[in-house]
Write a structure and sequence with these properties.
The chain is of the alpha+beta class. It has one domain. 41% of the residues lie in helices and 17% in strands. It has 8 helices and 5 strands. The chain has a 5-stranded mixed β-sheet. Strand 2 and strand 3 form a beta hairpin. It is globular. This is DUF4825 domain-containing protein. Pfam families: DUF4825.
């Protein structure tokens, strides 16, 4: 049984960061799924809010916001800090226009990698889409998987602004 004080839902602040998908009739300055990761991510904010602890709510919310999850859709954030594996869960209540499950997985894999690089004790990042809720499915990226994806330790490279820039470039290369 989870201790209510140990699992923190940070929905209000993240919903403000997540934004809305919109109907496409108005011009939007925010990031879309077609934008390059380097345009979507605020590397300076990732650098500024890097934290050793997943339980540092304000820094973690800022880090998630710096990765622009609104490219996927509207979400809430849950921090799982009661026992290992420590995890961060983004639950999407709606997805942006044109975002399929495959597109969401691609976008979230990049963002999860950046979160694993900037939160020292997070072991995994999970995400669920609206259609995943009833099935218990969703995506997950562990630290080991992120390291294998880019070919080096994301924690090591995420320790500096230059390393974060390199990581973003590597993720954009695919």
């Amino acid at each position: 049984m989870r201790s209510p004080g140990r699992v923190v839902a940070v929905s209000g602040a993240l919903l403000v960061l997540a934004g809305c998908a919109g109907d496409g009739t108005e011009e939007r300055a925010d990031v879309t799924m077609d934008s390059a990761l380097s345009e979507a991510v605020d590397v300076a904010s990732l650098e500024e809010h890097r934290t050793p602890h997943l339980g540092d709510n304000s820094r973690v919310v800022a880090l998630v916001g710096a990765t622009s999850p609104h490219a996927v859709g509207e979400s809430t954030l849950e921090l799982r800090t009661d026992q290992r594996p420590y995890g961060l869960v983004l639950s999407f209540s709606a997805v942006a226009d044109g975002v399929t499950a495959d597109v969401a997985d691609d976008l979230m894999t990049d963002r999860a990698t950046l979160l694993l690089a900037t939160i020292d004790n997070v072991d995994e990042v999970r995400w669920t889409l609206p259609e995943d809720v009833d099935q218990g499915d969703g995506g997950v990226l562990t630290r080991a998987e992120a390291d294998a994806l880019v070919g080096f330790s994301v924690a090591d490279v995420g320790a500096t602004a230059e390393g974060l820039e390199e990581l973003v470039s590597r993720l954009e290369e695919g």
